[in-house]
Write a structure and sequence with these properties.
Residues 314-344 are annotated as: Disordered. Keywords: Pyridoxal phosphate. This protein has helices at 16-20, 42-55, 71-83, 97-105, 121-136, 150-153, 156-165, 180-189, 243-257, 263-278, 302-307; strands spanning 3-4, 24-27, 32-36, 64-67, 87-91, 109-112, 171-175, 197-202, 237-240, 284-288, 321-323. It is an alpha/beta fold. The two termini are 31 Å apart.
């Protein structure tokens, strides 16, 4: 049975942005806690826009252009709608119809690009189109979630919440995409606990930590580029979780704990539960980035899972493989096998 450690503050929020951007801290097991977001990427989107407005680089009516096929685009669309900035989101064909409709209902223009075979794959193609649009619209603002240091800096607010509710954390587990959430939250938590261990979660086919590039069915983590916001020296361990493992853990998170979350949350739970079980004396915090409603026709749909050869499969031994990560994006995994991630 889960236990909510803190209740939301008793206040009237000034906007849906303020009401939604911070997580609930929930106890899952004796030493495992979850930072449970409704829409995690709303936080850095709002923070980046705030900082740009304060600096004068984003003024009323300034066009905003960004690349996303997921929740950063949705968070940014909510912020831009609230602040009155016209938004163009450059995505790729994997963007689902429901998300595209939500973006467009918020006033965003969605432009889809195809993989043209350049290095960096579809994400490089999306970034190239963003740059083209930026040149076509002088004075526009590009948030730049992959390289803007305001992305990780936004998570200092989450560290403040964790410190005020849970207290000291020994291990932080989270998925890695842009590098903002895990890197930013770890940096802020390490200000009060330099010994915090940071465990990143990636997926096969992502090149972030040096693995070979390939197709990725598990979306919302991993990348075909090396984001500038990934601080490779910050991670103590990296685990690669397959789609079957992540989808099984996503279902288990709901069946066992009533948390209806997306597949990146399942991937985080897969690794965090494994780590917490092997380190019972440590307080472990996992990041659950978004809720499951967007995935009801995919990750929670048996026909879709069978069609993609991704029927959820448990892995009782833990993540398929893990390693002490390289400190550069091209060095590649150092080793494979269970047990590598255990603390000395």
């Amino acid at each position: 049975m889960t236990e909510t450690v803190t209740a939301p503050g008793r206040k009237i929020y000034s906007s849906v942005l303020e009401a939604t951007e911070l997580p609930r801290i929930i106890r899952i097991t004796a030493n495992l806690y979850a930072a449970t977001f409704s829409l995690m990427k709303l936080l850095p989107a709002r923070y980046i826009v705030d900082r740009a407005e304060a600096a004068g680089t984003l003024t009323p009516g300034t066009p905003v252009i960004e690349t996303s096929s997921g929740t950063f685009g949705l968070g940014l669309a909510m912020v831009c709608r609230h602040r009155g900035h016209p938004l163009t989101v450059v995505g790729d064909p994997v963007i689902d119809a429901d998300l595209r409709r939500r973006l467009e209902m918020l006033g965003a223009r969605v432009e889809i690009v195809e993989d043209d075979g350049r290095p960096g794959g579809i994400q490089a193609a999306r970034l190239a189109r963003v740059e083209e649009l930026r040149r076509e619209h002088p004075g526009s603002f590009v948030p730049g979630q992959y390289d803007n240091p305001d992305n990780p800096a936004a998570y200092a607010a989450v560290a403040d919440l964790v410190g005020a509710t849970l207290g000291a954390v020994d291990c932080l587990v989270g998925t890695v995409g842009s590098g903002g959430s895990t890197g930013g939250l770890a940096a802020a938590l390490r200000a009060s606990n330099a010994d915090l261990r940071l465990v990143g979660v990636d997926t096969p086919g992502s090149i972030i930590f040096g693995a070979a590039e390939g197709a990725r069915l598990l979306r919302g983590l991993g990348s075909s580029i090396h984001p500038g916001n990934v601080d490779y020296t910050a991670y103590d361990e990296v685990h690669w979780v397959t789609p079957r493992e992540a989808f099984h853990a996503t279902h288990d998170l709901y069946r066992s704990h009533g948390l209806f979350m997306g597949p990146t949350s399942g991937a985080s739970f897969q690794v965090a539960a494994w780590w917490a079980d092997r380190n019972p004396g440590d307080t472990v915090l996992m990041v659950l980035p978004d809720e499951g409603y967007r995935y009801q026709s995919t990750v929670y749909n048996d026909a879709w899972l069978r069609a993609h050869d991704a029927v959820p499969t448990p892995n009782p031994d833990g993540p398929g493989w893990s390693n002490i990560p390289a400190t550069s994006p091209t060095a590649g995994p150092a080793c494979r096998g269970h047990g590598v991630a255990s603390k000395p």
